[in-house]
Write a structure and sequence with these properties.
By secondary structure, the chain is an all-alpha fold. The protein is built from 3 helices and no strands. Helix 2 packs across helix 3.
């Protein structure tokens, strides 16, 4: 009976990715505002879009590596 109980406790420990990384992956795309019509507004909006995309991509790579470190197969994480 003791062996059975011991066997039940030997489960792999699964860790979750950091909440900030998951939250970054679901961050809403910046919406254009009336500012886009002002001088330099388009450049500011494009910069906001680039920053948003970089944050999502970085977070996705971190989550991908977390999953691979937990044993997930069949995926390749960029930058490895």
């Amino acid at each position: 009976m003791v062996a059975l109980l011991t066997a039940c406790t030997e489960r792999p420990q699964v860790g979750y990715p950091a909440p900030k990384d998951v939250q970054a992956m679901v961050e809403a795309k910046p919406a254009p505002t009336d500012d886009i019509l002002l001088p330099g507004g388009s450049a500011r909006y494009n910069s906001a879009l680039e920053s948003w995309g970089d944050r999502i991509s970085s977070a996705a790579v971190i989550v991908c590596r977390n999953l691979v470190n937990q044993g997930m197969t069949g995926v390749e994480c960029p930058g490895k």
